[in-house]
Design goal:
3 helices; elongated; alpha+beta; 32% helix
Length: 109
């Protein structure tokens, strides 16, 4: 039994609208994480021993990369943008809290 082309497209549109209704659009934070992880890494990017925290400093308008355990009491490096910071480290950004401007990076394996 063959289905006509018009019937096929009507069925596809019905399925698409049902999926859109049942599964609303993803949160924008997931899109940000995907874009950050899609950035190309530099050849000489750093490889952390553990997790990293990327945090925005509103006073200085810079992004800090810090050890996730010690945070402000440990080592840190500053970058002009979050994209630049992510490209400089061999990590995948896995979580974010946009209300305080903090992202968590896990070491790439």
């Amino acid at each position: 039994m063959m289905m006509g082309l018009a019937a096929y497209y009507r069925g596809s549109l019905a399925i698409q609208s049902q999926v859109a209704r049942d599964y609303p659009a993803r949160d924008s934070a997931f899109l940000v994480l995907e874009r950050l992880n899609a950035l190309p890494k530099y050849d000489d990017c750093g490889v952390p021993f553990g997790d990293l925290v990327f945090e925005f400093d509103q006073r200085r308008r810079l992004w800090w990369v810090m050890d996730s355990v010690a945070l402000h009491g440990g080592w840190s490096f500053c970058y002009s943008s979050l994209a630049e910071a992510v490209k400089r480290w061999s990590v995948d950004v896995v979580a974010c809290d946009v209300s305080i401007g903090r992202f968590l990076g896990k070491r790439r394996v």
